[in-house]
Amino acid sequence: MTKLLLCGCNGKMGRAVTGCVAGRCDCEIVAGVDLNTESHAGYPVYANPMNCMATPEALIDFSHPSALEKTLAYAKTHNIPAVLATTGYREEQIAAIHEAAKEIPVFFTANMSMGVNLLAELCKKAAQVLGADFDVEIIEKHHNQKIDAPSGTALMLARAVEEGLDYEPTYVYDRQAVRQKRDHHEIGFSAVRGGNIVGEHEVLFAGHDEIVTLSHSARSKEVFAVGAVNAALFMVGKPAGLYTMADLVK
């Protein structure tokens, strides 16, 4: 049975991961990390991962970008894989993740859902086929507590589209600030925040007299929890390097 350390264990996603693992027989959470050190699931919770007394074989991080430095330091010190499921990292933090992957196995993706990663592949294919004849717009919807916009998943989908194009597009986030016609080489983003929307992403390819729409709707946080746990089990025993959902589904 694989032993896991869960960072951000008392947050909404942390609780979803805890519930997911409780129903499995191939892994267990041996400790958690959270600023709120309340233990509600039978395992000890530490404010600092370096104080953890357990011996996990992998860690899952659903905490906050500000915790990245300590999370990576712990993983490198104990030479265990890190599954980074937090979003909203700054560019310098992403660079730090790539550096850490030279020492330890790191699983890093903007979205832990299998369906979303399939959507990204479909977006790349659509861009290759439809090309410069279609304008691309991405609409993403999340709950009213989400801080970053556009979402990490929306940016991931934009990069997938970009891979399929034969030109380098410009990302446009705020049309209110730009009083001009849409440039043909743009990828536009629209962010909706409201209620308890788990996560919805829609990619529009708008051409002359036709529109192609690719979309994904997450109905609960469980889909991301399952993906993160599967990623952690997959990573045990892997050599140092940067891994994504594409590696998991091969």
Describe this structure in words.
- The protein is an alpha/beta fold.
- It is built from seven helices and twelve strands.
- The protein has a seven-stranded parallel sheet, sandwiched between helices. A five-stranded mixed sheet has the order 8-9-7-10-11, with helices on one face.
- Helix 1 links the parallel strand 1 (2-7) and strand 2 (27-33).
Number of helices: 7
Q: How many extended strands?
A: 12
Helical content (DSSP H or I, runs of 4+): 25-40%
Strand order of the largest sheet: 3-2-1-4-5-6-12
Distance between the first and last residues' Cα:
23 Å
Low-confidence stretches: none
What characterizes the major β-sheet? 7 strands, parallel
Oligomeric state of shown chains: single chain
SSE succession: EHEEEHEHEHEHEEEEHEH
Average of pLDDT: 94
Shape: elongated
Quick summary:
The chain is of the alpha/beta class and 250 residues long. It has helices at 12-22, 68-78, 91-100, 114-130, 152-164, 222-235, 245-248, and strands spanning 2-7, 27-33, 45-46, 58-61, 82-84, 105-108, 135-142, 170-172, 186-193, 199-206, 211-218, 241-243.
